[in-house]
Design brief:
Length: about 140
């Protein structure tokens, strides 16, 4: 399953991507925000997605101004590997090398079209399962992260 959330700065991008996902027949659950009013705090939304991704072993998409705050919050959850990606190549490498399971989009720094390409690349990419990458992920898990 795919889980989405945004703060007020990422709301328009979340809505744009949700529309594209629905048009492509991709199922997702939207955890908010449900407006672009700056009344809600991003940690609430990032936590919701991170907990769902960890529990259901799904993937998540987060949208905020820089992408950084949401990724920081998500990475506090065990077994979450959230990354900020500003171009498709970064999203692809995050999936292939680090088995990233949450993508955080920096809405203030990419266009809507770039955002969609980054999301599509993230969703289409998979973990390489190369020994060195498996070993590194095991080291991350053992560190208590």
């Amino acid at each position: 399953m795919l889980y989405l959330a945004a703060d007020h700065a990422g709301y328009e991008y979340k809505e744009f991507v949700a529309h594209k996902l629905a048009a492509d027949g991709i199922a997702f659950e939207d955890f908010g925000a449900f407006s672009n009013e700056p009344r809600d705090d991003y940690p609430i939304f990032a936590k919701r997605v991170a907990k769902a991704v960890a529990k259901e072993k799904g993937r998540g998409l987060l949208f905020c101004g820089s992408g950084e705050g949401m990724a920081i919050v998500a990475n506090r959850q065990k077994h979450i590997r959230a990354v900020v990606a500003w171009q498709p190549a970064v999203a692809r490498e995050a999936r292939q090398d680090n088995d990233a399971n949450i993508l955080s989009i920096p809405a203030r720094f990419v266009s809507r079209e770039e955002c969609w390409e980054i999301v599509r690349t993230f969703l289409a990419s998979s973990f390489s399962h190369e020994e060195r990458h498996r070993r590194r992920l095991q080291q991350i898990d053992e560190s208590g992260s």
